[in-house]
Fold each of these.
Amino acid sequence: MSEKTVTVKVLRFDPAKDKEPYYQSYRVPFTGGMSAMTALDYIYQNLDGSLSYYDHAACSLGICARCTGKINGKPGLFCQTPLDGDVTLEPPGKSKVLKDLVFTR
Amino acid sequence: MSKQTIETDVLVVGGGGAGFRAAIGAAETGARVTLISKGPLARCGATPMAGADFTLDGRSLAQLGFKGDPNDTREKVFSDIVHQGFFLNNQKLVSHYVENAPFRLKELLEWGVKVLFSEERAIFTSGIAIMDALLQKARSVGVVCLEDMMVLDLLTVEGVVSGALALDIRKGDFVHFQTGAALIATGGWHKAFWPNTGMRDLSGDGIAIAQRAGAETGNMEFITFCCNILYSPPIWRGSLATYVAGLLCGGELTNSKGEAFLAAYDPYIAKVGSETEWNKSFVSLATVKEVKAGRGSPGGGVYYGRGDVPWEQFERTAMLVFPNWKYKAMDLSGLGRIMKDGGKVEVGPAVEYFDGGIVVNERLETTVQGLYAAGECTLGPFGANRVFSAITEMLVHGATAGQNAGLYATKRKIPSLDARVFEPFEENALLPISLKEGLSPAGVRRRVQEEAHDKLGPIRNRPELETFIRFLQEVKSEELPRLHAQASGRVYNKGWIDALELRNMLQLLETAARSALFRTESRGVHFREDFPFTDNDAWLHETISTWGGDAPEIRKKPATLTDLRPAEGVVPYMQMLKRMMEAHSDTGGHH
């Protein structure tokens, strides 16, 4: 494949089987104007259906703020943070992780 | 697995504007009210995404102290809504809308909603401001609000709604409700289409569960597509920014050949059809015509630019709605740069509003005892085409539905349901997490969404609708039972939720596709290439649908025409469209 890809490293934690959180990396096709949420959608829909992020009632347009997390260590909304290269996605600091990127407020 | 049982007088399903207004109305009758929100409180459903306009007659608006047109009347508004709806409107519901709108605006102001600006017969505020005010009011009257919860089915005892099964999405546990009445306010089912403008929770759960509980639905083929939605880049996909810019600032739409294709239409239709909120139906239709003729953009849309509107003027108007090219957390400065440089962006129609839905009367009762409905999920006042505000609809509906549900439920003893009656519903819901392997719900969903956008879009025809129905039947029988949630456990299991939603969306898509095939004419937002005329002899009728267990049954029922009736005869669609536009009263503005 000659198309450009980026590596997206995601914090994973499944309370049903994991003692500690860990990181998992995925290679995602890069398109101009994609957001961190676009990458998560791609991973969930094409690479790994076990990934959880707050999606079932997210607005994806910067209104509801439920996709809050850390993007390369900086707090922000996954849906409104543009990607320009490899990236690490984590739940917000100090939050209690419910599953993967979904956290308890 | 832990199971919770909750007793309540009125169970409101849906956490948008209609649901919250209904919950307030029910609580004010003395009923104990529980509201279930699928997503974050006051931040899910379509309402927070809205601009938002609230429409009412200009005279009432002026009496409330705003710049309304004092010569406007309720009769003019009534007539305009009926003409915009191509006479398919339930005129009793139009009266209900017109009569109640001023009260709903007055209370919004009392509850602290700020008006940004007003015009002849509308005020503009934000959906978020409305939601914040409603949430605060609901809490003050004792409504219990639960979030991140999805209602899976309604339970009836001898045909009367008595309970509901819900899923706590975070924990993955079932919740049993025993209720005196249920009220559906779940909005539209945007998620059944791709692209769409709705939030990701809008999968039509409420309409689907009402259908399964025996409620009639109607006019499900009438689906409004909003034109000029941003198709790319992905970070803006689904945003209405270009729609709003086109309406307020002007601009130009071109096809892949660079032609301003709206110029090919009757100048009057093109003008009214792009400068007022008629644009949703007219421009969406014209856009899909270009795409179907091979003159679309790579993403299946067309191009929007500012045309000959001077940049200074364009930006000044845009700043009213997008200060500093920001809209909430969305940074639109890149869009501003493109517009300044005279560039173009890819835009197109995306599903935005559902004119049909659960059948209700003017008391907002459904055809099932103990079941009420409000807002976009109903077959509301707009007939075949909506131009007036859905924000007004959700509030006038919500207030009446909530009050009537509260009065009904408080006269009734809350039914006691044996846990065993929930079991068949739970077994069905557990299927996607009990299979060891199977199909990805998200993968199946995307195919369904794209087919829906293509075959059930603004332009339909018999062969495509029949192909689509066969496709839906195959997905329903071959794929739906094999949907498998890949994640282990029940805690926030996305695949599981997706599978449960897909069941509902397939049900509604099949109902809508069969209704669209059944209606052999063109009217409002339903355009049939093979029947390009409005048939006022045979089709002043609603299409009524009921869920027969495995497939919808569709029949005709005369529309409720109390005051206004169109001339008899069969009229070519574009001619009917122009007549409906020309019949508009002398009140100005965007509606």
Amino acid sequence: MHEGVARAVENVSFTLKEGEMLGLAGESGCGKTTTALSIMRLLPPGGRILNGEIIVDNEDLVKKTDREMKDIRWKKISIVFQGAMNALNPVIRVGEQVAEAIVEKEKVAKTEALRRARLLFELVGLDSSRVSDYPHEFSGGMRQRVMIAMALACDPRIVIADEPVTALDVVVQTRILELLKELQRKLSLSVILITHDLSVIAETCDRVAIMYAGKIAELGNVVDVYKDSWHPYTEALITAFPSIAGEKRRFRSIPGDPPDLTSPPSGCRFHPRCPFQDETCRTRDPELRKIGPDHYVSCNYGEKLRKDI
Amino acid sequence: MLSVENLSVWFPARSGVSGIFTRKEQWIRAVDSVSFDVRKGEVMCLAGESGSGKTTTARAILALTRAKSGSVKFVGKDILSLPKAELRKLRCKMQIIFQDPYESIDPRMSVLEILTEPLEVNKVTRSRRERERRVHKALEDVRLLPPLEFARRFPHELSGGQRQRVAIARGLVLQPELLVADEPVSMLDASIRVQILNLLLDLREEYDLTFLYITHDLAQARYIGNDIVIMYLGQMMERGSVEDVVAKPVHPYTRALISNVPVPDPTLKRDRIAVKGETPSALDMPSGCRFHPRCPHATEVCKTKEPEFLQVNGDRYSACHFNDRWVA
């Protein structure tokens, strides 16, 4: 039995520009979902934001009251939860489920809400007549489009999508990701895409934050982070990612397991698994620092390693 | 080592009350005439998306699910027609590793108990000492060291990757010749996946094991496999060496699939082949070629006539009326 305080997210900082898609990548337990829930102020009981700021349109969400957050959630920022497409109410027509959010948040009549729901369906590539269907009449990919429609119901500026394509077949995956990119363009939407799948991020996102054990290991535009990785974790993760392209050879895996966040390693949280770790790494927890115009890394030896690798 | 011929698995389908009154039998043709050979020491991948029938095929091969027709020859014996007692003995030589490391091992048993159970049930060892020796060896093989330490642990004291190693150790303890692995790394973190895939490759080398590897992830299949069968709605669409099939796919379904698999490189330009719709339910099996409603090249003949699974060149086979058109 574990007891204690899990330092789930530590010193995470990043900016999201308008109309940009930022990938939040990392393995299970790295803190990406917790970061997203913090932004929405939807942490589970027991979870607390200890410090920091979440600034959206010049307002700090951390300082908002519950009531104020109610006005912001769904209207400024909305979220497509992981597995949400399987959590649709099976006995209510999907159009009504989408309309529910609109009635609640925009304070309009149901007829108006349903009209908007039909428009939203068209926006996400679904036939508007399907608002009167039930969830079981939709395939997986279509249900995910419904969830995206729901997230867009109140015209938010930011949408957080948590593992939006994980459970979908690969050809459907492409279509959903293309939809997100199209919406990003059409509506100047900012998107935070959370996933453990590095290949999805490579092909869809503009920028990426690689998280490890609650911290950001590397942050920047995708080309820099993928092709010119500085953090040993990033480098190891990307090179040891089985792919259908590239050389066919054995990869060297990262030894060990991700740490227990109730008692994270001293110093740099990655050091027990890092091939380059030394005394400094065991004692000094590195901060995220700038190494390029849009490239940041939190490693004690960023520069030195570049020369050695 | 393993020879599967025209294996079919059909499930009776019944829709509600009408199923009792109507005499018409509806069948879900979950697996339809699947054939392939696996040489000793090789890794054969059964690849396909949800509903393709890959897991059902594997289960039928292990006789965990009743096949409707076809044959499965393992070390010269036809598994599907073996008497129960003989099948029991042969089962020791064929083991399975499941996808979910949280569901496939009993949380109330210690690792030692989990690994001893198959030995006791199958009565293959004569003493407790021998059982302990085998368990010890299996833990060493999967690099859960020191073995004594891990033997006394319970599943909740292990990480996902460690649990999966226990599942693999359990598969090894009977010293099998064939290992069936059903999406063994799909639920594991990215940094652990390659660890486990490498472990499987090491074990294959050390024990000359033969693998039947089931996955929807073509990247995994490419990493670990020698040969591959691409399945769709219960049928084989394409079969060949994994490297060739991935590099130069023939069947339109394979080609579409591969063009849609993302790669971890933002600078690689991809030509995506769009595929409309989603995989239909097996109850609503399309006529003719099962892929025709979604195929960008479908013609009249595709709607009416089921294509044959024909040799394209060498060991490559594909089931498309226009195979020749797609060969590079």
